Amino acid sequence: MLNIKGEHIYLRALEPTDLDFLYKLENDTSVWEVSGTLKPYSKKVLQSYLDNAHRDIYDVKQLRLCIGDQNDPCIGLIDLFDFDPKNRRAGIGIVIAEPSYRNRGVGAEALSLLCDYAFSVLDMHQLYANILEDNLASIHLFKKLGFKEIGIKKEWIRTHKGFKNEIMFQKINTNES
């Protein structure tokens, strides 16, 4: 089982007991704009996802981990997606589901841990993130962790209020030999 420990939080593999957390998070319409979700998920669909969550990143091209601490085993999720071992890159995304954990360093520690894992264990050359222009907290977080803005995708995401720009950030592994 994958378990990456930090100073205050840890990242761990998804477990069958995470079904209720996933159900609540995936059906929270306030995060649909950033996740691209268009309809609710059933517990059956999410259970099937959990049943296959153990599959290797090289097979499914994604790694989803729970962010936990000593008080709560799952306060958010952090993902590597579009895993491309040939070009040694992957996208990265994070959501802190519990508002009481936001702006307390949890996201920064989780992002730092996953970046270190991606660069040192998975031998990634670069990571990237796509962030809506009005998601100032995420923009601040990724910049704080050394991600550089590399471009803007104009009117990229359609919302109920119209189109929004998406900013692309990139972090190159500078510790490669």
UniProtKB/TrEMBL annotation:
**What PROSITE patterns does the record point to?**
GNAT
Q: Which GO terms describe its molecular function?
A: acyltransferase activity, transferring groups other than amino-acyl groups
Read off the Gene3D superfamilies from this record.
3.40.630.30
Q: Name one Pfam family in it.
A: Acetyltransf_3
InterPro entries (alphabetical): Acyl_CoA_acyltransferase, GNAT_dom
What residues does the N-acetyltransferase domain cover?
9-173
Spans traversing the lipid bilayer: none
PANTHER family attached to this UniProt entry: GNAT-FAMILY ACETYLTRANSFERASE, SPERMIDINE N(1)-ACETYLTRANSFERASE
Please give the name of this protein: Acetyltransferase
